[in-house]
Amino acid sequence: MSGTVTTSRTAARLDELAAVGRPALVGYLPVGFPDVPRSIEAVSMMVDAGVDVVEVGVPYTDPVMDGPVIQRAAEAALAGGARVRDVLAVVEAVADRSGGKIPALVMSYYNPVLRYGVEAFARDLAAAGGAGMITPDLIPDEAQEWSAAADEHALDKVYLVAPSSTPDRLRLTAQASRGFVYAASTMGVTGAREAVGQRAEELVAHTRAAGARHVCVGLGVSTGAQAAEVGRFADGVIVGSALVRTLLTDDPWADRLDALGRVTGELAAGVARARTTGGDS
Amino acid sequence: MPEQPEQPVRDALTETLAHQVAEKLADVQGPYFGQFGGRYVPEALIAALDELETEFRKAQGDPAFAAELSRLHRDYTGRPSPVTEVPRFAAHIADADGDGTAPVRVFLKREDLNHTGSHKINNVLGQALLVKRMGKTRVIAETGAGQHGVATATAAALLGLECVVYMGEEDTRRQALNVARMELLGATVVPVSVGTRTLKDAINEALRDWVTNVDHTHYLLGTVTGPHPFPEMVREFHRIIGEEAREQVMERVGRLPDAVMACVGGGSNALGLFNAFLDDAEVSLYGFEAGGEGIESGRHAARFSGGAPGVLHGARSYLLQDDDGQTRPSHSVSAGLDYPSVGPAHSWLHDIGRATYEPVTDSEAMEAFRLLCRTEGIIPAIESAHALAGALRLGRRMVDEGRTDQVFLINLSGRGDKDVATAARWFGLLDEDTTEGDR
């Protein structure tokens, strides 16, 4: 048992940004899509275009929290031979590209990590310069092994809360999390939505009341306007499908990278103005 | 206050019962069966799982629920299902001396005679009654061969619930008649065209629907897998199989069977039968999983021979997976056994050595399928034929070891009407054109 870990690179980053009056843009891309080298190029583009925190997805055969866009990318990545260990190369690339300024979190369903070895994965993730892990299908109740390994290697543990979470669950999850709590804006899977419900704002308020110091909101955000709206009340705005979608076209790779850069830039501009004029115009 | 003096007595009684319960393998409660089980699901589903568990525990203690369920078992399903002795089939285990007396007596528990044609209806009716109690109006289900989908559509029609069934696109083609059956019963069948397009992906899609619509929707999971409380709850709804069969065999032969066997996909028919014998040390338990084209071929669904513990669809259990923890596709001639994981209680029974699990290949199962048709006039589901093949193998092993006077009890979990096209193709009874027309 190591001592209590009190520092979090991700939380520190969120605090830095809060000090300059804005929330974070958290951008997700899966490793290995369309292949490992190009997924590194894509993550680098996202970094250059203004994300503040990077989420690197481990492609998985059975992604029950993901909608069609991320499913398709994961399927293609697996068909292309992406391995779990490739996520470490992407994490390293983020650290290199940003001079260690941008925290890289891994987002993985539990079984790939379990198979890798939970302790071994934590050790290797920390060695690669990773900040921690987001676990969409691992709740704190089942996470003793991961929690111990994360503490041992000073990694963030990002658990999810949902609009259906009871006050007890919010307290439990807020206590177990380090870095931030991931608030699912709506009941459902990942993917762009017309509107990010009012439930998201209430959920953030309730999660803070339950003891969370940082709460980022994901699911459904795809435009700068939505990012500005969510950024008004959240510490960070998490975007996945809207970014992945730019890479899922048949266009030449350079054009897809440009599109990714444009969308990232639009979202970054959205979070930048989130708290300036009382929100979005 | 007439109740007060009774209180200490009742507490003492409850404590004693709780103590006995904890001692019995048959009554182990979730979320864990040894190191297996749990709730590896998105937080968004936890509130619904908690609600379901609470409602289930309340129903367990409510005589009105038990009465309603047993009325449906009797008047709607046709329970108790009979036990049939099959001597002409048993004679094929060993006919060494050719005197027509088999060294093994074989009894079949006839779940194939239930309404909708399999054991699935037991669980479906139980859960559907819970849905009514929870005030939910919509049920979703996954189905492979279509048996669970048909049973769910049936219960939804009976109880006036909206019903959506997710089915792999591949399976909707292989089982077009069952798609039509579900639609006749008023259900909507959604073909799933992602991933391997089979049962595993139908479950993924059902879970995605559930996360989205959980406030008014119940996921009517069809087997003893998934997050707690499903493995325990589905076992409870199927335990009637073993309880009836135990009594029926006792009545027939005056003692317990020597070996009890069943096919194991997710494992609900097996657990339902095994459960009544778990605490009888003298009864051996055998689960037969799909060996497909053989373990060495890599094309099988033998989780215990070719898998390792992992997490899929909410539970920790044995699982077909690669070195990266990616789910490996399963294969079986029988869609109902074609699933890469298995109920956590089976993983536990395997690890503590209480039950033995062996693979049965496609061809062994099909031979046993034909044998039962021809010797007994019973067309079994191909799933159940795996248990029949296992019994033949086990019986021959026992005869070789010189053990006689054995009594076998096999769960005939379903009937083979749905499998006639597959079997006809297998045995070359149809020319290819006709076969294609069937698909």
TrEMBL record, chain A:
Question: EC number(s) per UniProt?
Answer: 4.2.1.20
The record's keywords, sorted A to Z, are: Amino-acid biosynthesis, Aromatic amino acid biosynthesis, Lyase, Tryptophan biosynthesis
Q: Which GO terms describe its molecular function?
A: tryptophan synthase activity
> What InterPro entries would the database entry show?
Aldolase_TIM, RibuloseP-bd_barrel, Trp_synthase_alpha_AS, Trp_synthase_suA
What reactions does this protein catalyze?
(1S,2R)-1-C-(indol-3-yl)glycerol 3-phosphate + L-serine = D-glyceraldehyde 3-phosphate + L-tryptophan + H2O
Q: List the catalytic residues.
A: E55, D66
Q: Which one Pfam family would you cite for this protein?
A: Trp_syntA
Which superkingdom is the protein from? Bacteria
| SUPFAM superfamilies (alphabetical) | Ribulose-phoshate binding barrel
Its biological purpose is as follows: The alpha subunit is responsible for the aldol cleavage of indoleglycerol phosphate to indole and glyceraldehyde 3-phosphate.
Q: How does it assemble?
A: Tetramer of two alpha and two beta chains.
| Recorded metabolic or biological pathway in which this protein acts | Amino-acid biosynthesis; L-tryptophan biosynthesis; L-tryptophan from chorismate: step 5/5
Question: Which PROSITE patterns does the entry link to?
Answer: TRP_SYNTHASE_ALPHA
| Gene3D superfamilies xrefs | Aldolase class I
Q: Does the keyword DNA damage apply?
A: no
Tell me its family: Belongs to the TrpA family.
Full protein name: Tryptophan synthase alpha chain
Q: Which HAMAP family match?
A: Trp_synth_alpha (MF_00131)
From TrEMBL, chain B:
Recite the UniProt keywords alphabetically.
Amino-acid biosynthesis, Aromatic amino acid biosynthesis, Lyase, Pyridoxal phosphate, Tryptophan biosynthesis
User: Do you know which CDD domains this protein is assigned to?
Assistant: Trp-synth_B (cd06446)
Regions annotated as coiled coil: none
Domain (Tryptophan synthase beta chain-like PALP) ranges: 79-399
Cofactors, names only: pyridoxal 5'-phosphate
What's the Enzyme Commission number for this chain? Answer: 4.2.1.20
Top-level taxon of origin: Bacteria
Q: Which GO molecular function annotations are given, in alphabetical order?
A: tryptophan synthase activity
Identify one Pfam family in the record: PALP
Which residues are modified to N6-(pyridoxal phosphate)lysine? K120
Could you tell me what reaction this enzyme catalyses? Answer: (1S,2R)-1-C-(indol-3-yl)glycerol 3-phosphate + L-serine = D-glyceraldehyde 3-phosphate + L-tryptophan + H2O
Record PROSITE patterns:
TRP_SYNTHASE_BETA
User: Which pathway is it part of?
Assistant: Amino-acid biosynthesis; L-tryptophan biosynthesis; L-tryptophan from chorismate: step 5/5
Q: Which residues form the signal peptide?
A: none
Sequence similarity: Belongs to the TrpB family.
Give the quaternary structure: Tetramer of two alpha and two beta chains.
- The protein's name is Tryptophan synthase beta chain
Species per Swiss-Prot/TrEMBL record: Isoptericola halotolerans
Q: What is the lineage of its organism?
A: Bacteria, Bacillati, Actinomycetota, Actinomycetes, Micrococcales
Please state the gene responsible for encoding this protein: trpB
